[in-house]
Write a structure and sequence with these properties.
The protein has helices spanning 4-80, 88-165. By secondary structure, it is mainly alpha-helical. Helix 1 runs antiparallel to helix 2 (88-165). The longest helix is centred in the last third of the chain and has 78 residues, at 88-165. The radius of gyration is 38 Å and the shape is rod-shaped.
Length: 174
């Protein structure tokens, strides 16, 4: 058994070093995966913000188009009934229609901008999380490295103590 002691000790040390290296690599890989996931979330949120803005602009354009159509219908109805476009009440109705159309279009744009701000905030948070994931992975990797090194020092320290206290000399009287 004396012959196997140093071999088992060497294998144990090598396994400890290998385990520490694997823990460090696993921590770093986990951090890279989390960072990639958060960066993807960031990209998606940015795209959603752009789409929200574009959709609100399309909706506003549609409101303006509908407003022009409504105004032309009002003009046709007024002209068909023999009314005059310069009549103050007619001008008030047409002005109200124009204001309501503009308000509806601006509301659509505001809603889209609000939604885009929410998506942009989510993108910023995802970017922060990506950076945090890598920092945390580096810290976990360093912790695993120090833990492994500490474990090896502790093992060597114990074997040194055992060798120092053990004696091959037997006392004759007990």
């Amino acid at each position: 058994m004396g012959f196997l002691g140093p071999i088992v000790g060497a294998i144990s040390t090598i396994a400890g070093i290998g385990g520490t290296i694997m823990q460090v690599q696993a921590a770093k890989e986990e951090g890279r995966e989390q960072k990639a996931r958060f960066e993807y979330d960031q990209k998606v949120a940015s795209q959603q913000a752009d789409e929200a803005t574009a959709a609100s602009q399309r909706d506003a354009m549609e409101r303006y188009r509908e407003g022009r159509y409504l105004l032309s219908q009002q003009q046709a109805a007024i002209a068909g009934s023999g009314g005059n476009m310069t009549d103050p009440s007619v001008m008030d109705v047409m002005g109200d229609t124009t204001e309501r159309v503009a308000l509806a279009a601006q509301t659509d744009i505001y809603k889209g901008e609000q939604q885009a701000r929410g998506y942009n905030d989510a993108a910023k948070v995802a970017g922060y999380n990506a950076d945090s994931a890598m920092r945390a992975a580096r810290i976990r990797a360093a912790g695993a490295l120090f833990s492994g090194v500490s474990s090896m020092f502790s093992r060597f320290g114990e074997s040194n103590k055992k060798t120092q206290t053990a004696s091959s000399v037997s006392l004759p009287y007990g």
